[in-house]
Amino acid sequence: MTILIDQPEFGVEAGFDKVDNVEKGMVLDGGFMVPQTNSFGHTFRDYHVESERQQGVENFYRTNHINQTYDFVKRMREEYGKLNKVGMSIWECCELLNDVVDESDPDLDEPQIEHLLQTAEAIRKDYPDEDWLHLAGLVHDLGKVLLHPSFGGLPQWAVVGDTYPVGCAFDKTIVHHKYFEENPDFYNSAYNTKYGVYSDGCGLNNVMMSWGHDDYMYLVAKENNTTLPPAALFIIRYHSFYALHRSEAYKHLMSEEDVENLKWLQIFNKYDLYSKSKVRIDVEKVKPYYLSLIEKYFPAKLRW
Is 140 annotated as a binding-site member? Predict the structure, then answer.
């Protein structure tokens, strides 16, 4: 069976129900095989199944939801938007992730460099002519270097996990929503309505998202004048925004441009999620290809 996702409809992840009930041998548009289960033998993104990582993941989201306030995000964007921490290349940043494991991820406990290459290579098989999309797969999680001491060693709750808008009501589709009741913004009348500080169709570019690796890598790419297309920057910035691209929440804040870019994000998300596995990529074999893409779309050294 093949899932056709070349032209997904807005607001519906093409083939989503089919992927949720994935059949053995199912593929995405060609070469990439969708696995039946994650690395622990469970359904992907199941935050309630009892597993060796379930309790740790839930504890992570409790801390995340309590601390991600509008004021906190504003401070983080101002501080890290200065891009004065480190000067290094994209590939050097990839190598820094060798020691990083995402505590919010119920599907994988491999170092992040493995996930980056798995995502990029899966996309490359099915979209061989979209090299910008391959590179988006490689760099989308690089913001997780915020966990590294060179970047201040931020706690996991301020770096990884699903993202969501702050400054308006927390949608009930957000994973472990109940813990928002311990967030002070939950009771703030300026922030706890459908629109909060925003307006209908204002555009996601004008919405503050919970702070983490997505928004940080977007700032790094944009301020270092990457030549990646807008769809790639949208993918980098919102790939963890599952409440939108999986549950259709917050679409009242989207602009027409957001609607178009979301189509590419919905394509990308399949590979980001379902490429996670214990199968290792031969780094040295694929490295020359990705170095050529980095040279094409990024400066030799970036400000981080």
Answer: yes
3-state secondary structure of 52: coil
C-beta neighbour count of 210 within 10 angstroms: 27
213 annotated as belonging to a binding site for a ligand = yes
* Strand 32-33 versus strand 27-28 pairing type: antiparallel
Beta strands in 9-51 (DSSP E): 27-28, 32-33
Handedness of CA 179, 183, 189, 194 (dihedral sign): negative
Flag whether pLDDT at 34 surpasses 80: no
Q: Looking at 160-282, list the stretches that DSSP marks H as alpha helix, in order from N- to C-terminal side.
A: 213-223, 230-238, 242-245, 256-274
250-300, pLDDT tens digit by residue?
999 999 999 999 999 999 999 988 776 667 789 999 999 999 999 999 999
Give the alpha-carbon dihedral of 119, 125, 128, 130, to 10 degrees.
-20
Residue 144 annotated as binding? Answer: yes
99 is in an annotated binding site: no
The response to whether 45 counts as a known ligand-binding position is yes
Is the whole model's pTM more than 0.70, yes or no? yes
The candidate with the shortest Cα–Cα distance to 65, out of 224, 223, 177, 197, is 177
105 annotated ligand binder: no
Give 191-202 pLDDT, tens digit per residue.
999 999 999 999
Q: Is 240 annotated as a binding residue?
A: yes
**48 vs 14, higher pLDDT:** 48
